[in-house]
Amino acid sequence: MSNLRSLTFDAIIIGGGGSGLRAALELAKSGKKTAVLSKVFPTRSHTVSAQGGITCAIASDDPNDDWRWHMYDTVKGGDYIADQDAAEYMCSEGPKAVFELEHMGLPFSRLDNGRIYQRPFGGQSKNFGEGGQAARTCAAADRTGHALLHTLYQNNLKNNTVFLNEWYAVDLVKNASGDVVGCIAMCIETGEVVHVKSKATVLATGGAGRIYASTTNALINTGDGIGMALRAGFPMQDMEMWQFHPTGIYGAGTLVTEGCRGEGGYLINKDGERFMERYAPNAKDLAGRDVVARSMVMEILEGRGCGEKGDHVFLKLDHLGEEVLGKRLPGIVELSKTFAHVDPAKDPIPVVPTCHYMMGGIPTNIHGQAITMDESGNDHIVNGLFACGEAACVSVHGANRLGGNSLLDLVVFGRAAGMFIEGALNEGIEYLDASESDIESAMKRITRWNESEGGESIPELKAELQEIMQTSFGVFREEKNMLEGVDKLALLRERIANAHLPDKSNAFNTARVEALELDNLMEVAEATAIAALERKESRGAHSRYDYPDRDDVNWLKHSLFFPATKELKKRDVNFKPKTVDTFEPKVRTY
Amino acid sequence: MSNLQVSVYRYNPETDSAPYMQEFQVDTKGRDVMVLDVLHMMKEQDSGLAFRRSCREGVCGSDGMNMNGKNGLACITPLSDVVKNNKLTLRPLPGLPVIRDMVVDMGLFYKQYERIQPYLQNDTPPPAIERLQSPEERDKLDGLYECILCACCSTSCPSFWWNPEKFVGPAGLLQSYRFLADSRDTATSERLSNLEDPFSVFRCRGIMNCVAVCPKGLNPTRAIGKIREMLLADAT
Amino acid sequence: MVTNITSFGRSGLSDWLMQRVSAVILALYTVFIVAFLLFNPNLDYYTWSGLFSQTWMRIFSLLAFVALAAHAWIGLWTVTTDYLKSTRLRVGVQAVIILGIFVYLVWGIQILWGA
């Protein structure tokens, strides 16, 4: 393997979405030799699909808004397993990060006084839940993610970040001491495989919604970073926590922003009833996403669903009028015409809860440093490995993420990771070089595919995996079904290990990329399945028929899945914010 | 219901000495699916078929291609919009070098985008909060910032075909005007002086193919007209 | 910024403006000549040369000739840079065009003022 070409950087950032580009920007500005390695051209990353906005207490809509109120909402929204020091950091640093984005040129919508427009989103309150609905989500019409991602890419161009576009990271390279010292990556255009050496490897690879058959996620969201970290033996946190977004377009799965409900839209069942009034009398359609999604499924199960099969509900927007729709939700009008054949100014949009966001991921501290846990339950930093964005679990979202908190997470923790790495590089980092055999073990997987001579087809196995996850690990879960799912996944893992890559060519071989992605989907699915089976309670997005209540005695904890033993352990949640009092767990109602 | 006849441009530099068109029969079960769905069905028949895709909802700009002679995004183009006589011909975006099958080398396109300095420039120190901008000033950016860099416009523009190294092209110029029109940008005269040569802007002949194909409904020709007006106002 | 030494004004803006101004001059001249022909259905040599013996007509015609030369050069230069990718061929063709335009211009002036 010594004939492998190597590239050396101070920091390599894997993933060109919001968090990766934000981290890269910080490092590029400091003059560190930084590269962003992305399997797609950066502006094709999934951040581009974020619609509604970035939630942050910038005190524009309400001059008295307070980041502590935002923090309270975040902790409550996460059903109290969000780490409070991380939520504190995100909500208090947030305004700075958002103003920086504005200074970089992000074209936010505006209020008459020239400040950034903010809209109401689900789970937002003033005065720690006592002051009614807040409007805290900063928006660029309904294309905030697009505006944010392009702004970050543009500013990376300005600061001369090195881009390895359309390169695919295959696996992490660890040295003899277990430090991460880079990765194996493939140039998709030429098929060349190289060893990327780096003192800091940042996994900013986003989510993995493609483990489900029905998802709002892009086709590229295959959990590559999660798969790489799991194969390298690092644990995953809270992987049972998958958010099902209430409003995916029925049939197509494309997202319709929560901002629709923020602007005054609401859900109706087949009788035309605004059913959320029954489930969440105060917040109604702007309750937490997990609450709304479950309520929708209840309506459908109880026979009040819409359509011939009664398997979806409607999102009503026509009462907002064409002007508001055109000004505030132009992208939604476009999407629903294209994918639902419905003009929202006239008819309601058919929607159904759809897999949207992975709250779990690589456990990190607020500096983006990856964490593992020893036998006696003590945290340890993984040298050289960082994560930020959806791939990471800091954890600010706990068991359920609030709308608009994802974009804030990206920029705040991308920025934090960048700043921390810059400091660490300035102080000097020395790790052992990877040996031949270290590199070889990171090459094992791609070699396996390249030498496969027969076996099952990749797209079929992928479809089976997605079907298993959809059936056994959806909005509502129960033991028997999940056990079946876990068994099926174990068999599937064997089959994938023997699957066949028919096309071995080098130039832009997308079949090879899909084969490598399938391995990652498998890793994510397994971690999700085992964590979901083991967490015997209902909390946030994890909702079980057989354990319908929250169990704070046993499960006010993070779950930590260890790949080597396939065991699930518990990790303490942080209840010690630095500047505010702890938010004690309360019954969560909206 | 007879199968859809799809003719696809194929070229693998490792095995093919020249590109060719390959015929596929695709059973869409009579549904009016998107062209991208058809590509996925074909990839199940032949895993070697290469094309880019990501968001599958028309916002990432990966799957720009030429469908029955017209550029567009495969993921938001239903068959009923393009198929004629049950036939669909798919080719890569014209005017850029082909890497493999439907995948083109977008290097020239991105180079022209980078040339217009696609980032906000403001030489005053930033305030502690955001820079203020009135809703009217912000409205000027509508129809400009939404570009997804899919290259459908520039690769349908004859002027870009003839001078891809020198003519910025409709996508780049739309972004150029996005920053010229931004009340927060202070580099107007520098931006304009970089554009006054005979090629960068003035190769636009007002053919308006860009407007006809833009999947986001944007109007680069109008933006180019505005740049010309600004250049004229600046120089006279 | 793309630099070019063979373009008319070495600036796209001035070329663009010149193309439009010259087009207006040529349009006016054309309208005048067509109108003159229509109003003089039985045009003879004396009327025609009488027209061109007046100073204002000679200046107007000269203006139109110069506009035509500029217009033709800018237009043909553009065509050559679009379609002729071989530098040698393009410069050759451009030289022929310049020579042609020069000959026509001198010839035109000679006819106008030479009589």
From TrEMBL, chain A:
GO biological process, one term: electron transport chain
Active site, per annotation: 289
The organism's place on the tree of life at top rank: Bacteria
Record note on cofactor: Flavinylated by SdhE, about 5% flavinylation occurs in the absence of SdhE.
Residue positions binding substrate: 245, 257, 356, 401
Cofactor(s) for this UniProt protein: FAD
Protein purpose: Two distinct, membrane-bound, FAD-containing enzymes are responsible for the catalysis of fumarate and succinate interconversion; the fumarate reductase is used in anaerobic growth, and the succinate dehydrogenase is used in aerobic growth.
Record protein name field: Succinate dehydrogenase flavoprotein subunit
Organism this protein belongs to: Vreelandella sedimenti
UniProtKB/TrEMBL annotation, chain B:
Domain of life (superkingdom): Bacteria
This protein's record includes keyword Oxidoreductase: yes
SUPFAM superfamilies, sorted: 2Fe-2S ferredoxin-like (SSF54292), alpha-helical ferredoxin (SSF46548)
Molecular functions per Gene Ontology: 2 iron, 2 sulfur cluster binding; 3 iron, 4 sulfur cluster binding; 4 iron, 4 sulfur cluster binding; electron transfer activity; metal ion binding; succinate dehydrogenase (quinone) activity
Alphabetical UniProt keywords: 2Fe-2S, 3Fe-4S, 4Fe-4S, Electron transport, Iron, Iron-sulfur, Metal-binding, Oxidoreductase, Transport, Tricarboxylic acid cycle
One GO BP: respiratory electron transport chain
Pfam family, one: Fer2_3
Domain 4Fe-4S ferredoxin-type: 137-167
E.C. numbers: 1.3.5.1
Main EC class the enzyme belongs to: oxidoreductase
Reactions this protein catalyses: a quinone + succinate = fumarate + a quinol
InterPro entries: 2Fe-2S_ferredoxin-like_sf, 4Fe4S_Fe-S-bd, 4Fe4S_Fe_S_CS, Beta-grasp_dom_sf, Helical_ferredxn, SDH/FRD_Iron-Sulfur, Succ_DH/fum_Rdtase_Fe-S, Succ_DH/fum_Rdtase_N
Presence of keyword Amino-acid biosynthesis: no
Cofactor: [2Fe-2S] cluster; [4Fe-4S] cluster; [3Fe-4S] cluster
Pathway listed: Carbohydrate metabolism; tricarboxylic acid cycle; fumarate from succinate (bacterial route): step 1/1
Similarity annotation: Belongs to the succinate dehydrogenase/fumarate reductase iron-sulfur protein family.
Task of the protein: Two distinct, membrane-bound, FAD-containing enzymes are responsible for the catalysis of fumarate and succinate interconversion; the fumarate reductase is used in anaerobic growth, and the succinate dehydrogenase is used in aerobic growth.
Name of protein: Succinate dehydrogenase iron-sulfur subunit
Organism: Halomonas campaniensis
TrEMBL record, chain C:
UniProt cofactor note: The heme is bound between the two transmembrane subunits.
A single GO cellular-component term on record: plasma membrane
UniProtKB keywords: Cell inner membrane, Cell membrane, Electron transport, Heme, Iron, Membrane, Metal-binding, Transmembrane, Transmembrane helix, Transport, Tricarboxylic acid cycle
Obligatory cofactor(s): heme
Positions that bind a ubiquinone: 83
Pfam families: Sdh_cyt
Entries under InterPro entries matching the protein: SQR/QFR_C/D, Succ_DH_anchor, SuccDH_FuR_B_TM-su
GO MF, one annotated term: metal ion binding
GO biological process: cytochrome complex assembly; tricarboxylic acid cycle
Bilayer topology annotation: Multi-pass membrane protein
Matching Gene3D superfamilies: Fumarate reductase/succinate dehydrogenase, transmembrane subunit (1.20.1300.10)
PANTHER family: SUCCINATE DEHYDROGENASE HYDROPHOBIC MEMBRANE ANCHOR SUBUNIT (PTHR38689)
The protein, known as: Succinate dehydrogenase hydrophobic membrane anchor subunit
Gene that encodes the chain: sdhD
